[in-house]
Amino acid sequence: YQYNIVLGLQEWCAVFTPRISFEHVVTKPPRIFNYYYYSLQRAQSDAA
Questions:
Q1: Which of the listed residues 1, 23, 25, 41 has the most CB atoms within 10 Å of its CB?
Q2: What does the alpha-carbon distance between residue 32 and residue 36 come to, in Å, rounded to a whole number?
Q3: What is d(CA 45, CA 20) in angstroms, rounded to the nearest whole number?
Q4: Contact between residue 39 and residue 47 where contact means Cβ atoms under 8 Å apart
């Protein structure tokens, strides 16, 4: 499930932001990606 999320995020970046590489997004993520990552981490901690 987590792999599908990562793969989907890579595809989303490839479609909507072709100028920005996935590594750049991970290194310097916008606020929406920070919020998404925080939500994902919190969901994983709640599930565990």
A1: 25
A2: 6
A3: 30
A4: no
pLDDT in tens, 6-44: 777 777 666 665 555 566 656 665 666 777 778 888 887
Task: Look up residue 6 and give its two tokens.
Answer: 């990562």
Instruction: Pull the structure tokens for residue 47.
Output: 């599930």
Q: pLDDT value at position 6?
A: 76
The answer to pTM > 0.70 is no
Write a three-state SS string for 8-28: HHHHHHHHHCCCCCHHHHHHC
3-state secondary structure of 6: helix
